[in-house]
Design a protein that fits this description.
This protein is α/β, with parallel strands linked by helices. It has eleven helices and eight strands. Strand 4 (about 65-70), helix 4 (about 75-80) and strand 5 form a beta-alpha-beta unit. The longest helix is centred in the C-terminal third of the chain and has 28 residues, at about 160-190. The protein binds NADP nicotinamide-adenine-dinucleotide phosphate.
Length: about 260
């Protein structure tokens, strides 16, 4: 499959690197377009074999799949300028807030279109990527899931859930980082050097995530395993709830919707 990526910024660049490190797409089949040749050259230094161009149409010409990774306000203008074969090619947009219906209006109502929401951990191949589709076959859906599973974890969802799930994942990653920041401050107050504290906390967060992702379990079960009656963990857990921790998380997620 030949892939064209339009926009080599944070997301487009990370996707290009992710594809290049994955097993599904050959580097020779990846073309990235961006107005900034220096940005493109840096990308090519990382992923040799990929093709770079400052002309979007050159990238799109022979592509089977076009990944649009530009700012949302440029989507209509850029798509409008491209000659796309809406019967043969597949469009993947990662532009926040642009619906499948809006995209279909710009290209064609029959075109196979995917709307993706990765999060910033895509640069570490650890993205939670949400995927909604229009006019896609089961095989096409599976292909896109497989490709983005190599950059973390990808899940197909109905488009009606995109707003809520974006709050959980794209905004949610910031809340986890906020926890890491706050916990680091606690470590420093208790005499631990910030860099060491941050590493310890980040690894603990990663470990908690692995427990959930790798096992058929529930956070309450895992919490119970570290909570001895009369022990130190329950004291801290109850402090969190006296301070409204669970409620604050729920309110934050809902506020981000
Ligand atoms: N960042 C996130 O966490 C996140 C998460 C999910 C989805 N998204 C979505 O991902 C999209 C890209 O976001 P980003 O953070 O990667 O933005 P970004 O870093 O600004 O990347 C966009 C890239 O597109 C380039 N560009 C501008 N005009 C272009 C044109 N006419 N043709 C081709 N490329 C052009 C930009 O170049 P210049 O810099 O020279 O303008 C830039 O390199 C957005 O729609 C955003 O909503 C972002």
């Amino acid at each position: 499959m030949k892939i064209a990526i339009i926009g080599a910024g944070n997301m487009g660049g990370a996707i290009a690197k992710g594809l290049a490190q994955g097993t599904i797409i050959n580097n020779n089949d990846i073309t990235v377009a961006d107005p900034d040749i220096e940005k493109l050259k840096q990308l090519q230094n990382f992923a040799s074999g990929i093709t770079i161009t400052t002309q979007n149409q050159n990238a799109v010409e022979n592509a089977d799949t076009i990944i649009l990774a530009v700012k949302p306000w440029l989507v209509a203008q850029i798509l409008g300028q491209l000659k796309i074969d809406s019967k043969r090619q597949v469009l993947i947009s990662i532009a926040a807030g642009i619906s499948l219906e809006q995209l279909a209006k710009i290209v064609s109502p029959e075109m196979t279109i995917f709307r993706l929401v990765p999060n910033t951990a895509i640069s570490e191949l650890a993205s939670m990527t949400l995927i909604a589709s229009l006019n896609a076959s089961k095989e096409q859906e599976q292909q896109v899931v497989d490709i983005f599973n190599e950059m973390g974890l990808a899940m197909l969802i109905p488009e009606s859930q995109i707003v809520a799930t974006t709050a959980l994942t794209s905004c949610g990653i910031a809340y986890v980082l906020k926890y890491i920041h706050a916990a680091t401050e606690a470590g420093v107050e208790m005499g631990i050097y910030p860099k060491a504290a941050m590493k310890m906390i980040a690894q603990s967060v990663k470990g908690a995530a692995e427990l959930i992702l790798n096992n058929d379990t529930h956070p309450a079960i895992e919490i119970d395993k570290v909570t001895t009656p009369g022990g130190i963990t329950i004291k801290g857990l109850n402090e969190l709830d006296h301070a409204g921790f669970s409620s604050a998380i729920i309110r934050a997620m809902k506020a981000s919707k």
